[in-house]
Amino acid sequence: MDYSCTPEEVQQHFQSCGTVNRVTILTDKFGQPKGFAYVEFIEVDAVQNAVLLNESELHGRQLKVYVLLYYFFTLLYTYTDKVLPK
To answer: What residues have CB less than 8 Å from 64, skipping those under 6 apart?
Structure first.
């Protein structure tokens, strides 16, 4: 990811996948971007849609989209917890 990307630009890039809940751009101890970000979606299906944007371009740089399984399952649990009665 390009170092000059803002969270708003990343959100806009992934908004076609589903509702973006949060974008976190990781920074070093000096506050400089590390060149990657986490995108959190509200809908579980949005994660699969986001994978389709692998190798798409943002700011002229090719993106690599990975699914963090631990995080995905955390989102899945949270999502089903809201939908299914306890």
So the answer is: 54, 55
Helices (H), 1-86: 7-14, 45-51, 69-83
Reported as a single tens digit per residue, the pLDDT across 28-53 is 999 999 988 999 998 888 989 999 99
Residues 6+ apart with CB under 8 A from 67: 47, 50, 51
**Do 68 and 36 meet the contact criterion of CB atoms below 8 Å apart?**
no
The partner residues of 25 in beta bridges, in order of sequence, read 37
Residue 23, strand partner residues? 39
The C-alpha atoms of residue 78 and residue 64 are separated, in whole angstroms, by 26
Q: List the structure tokens of 62.
A: 């090719």
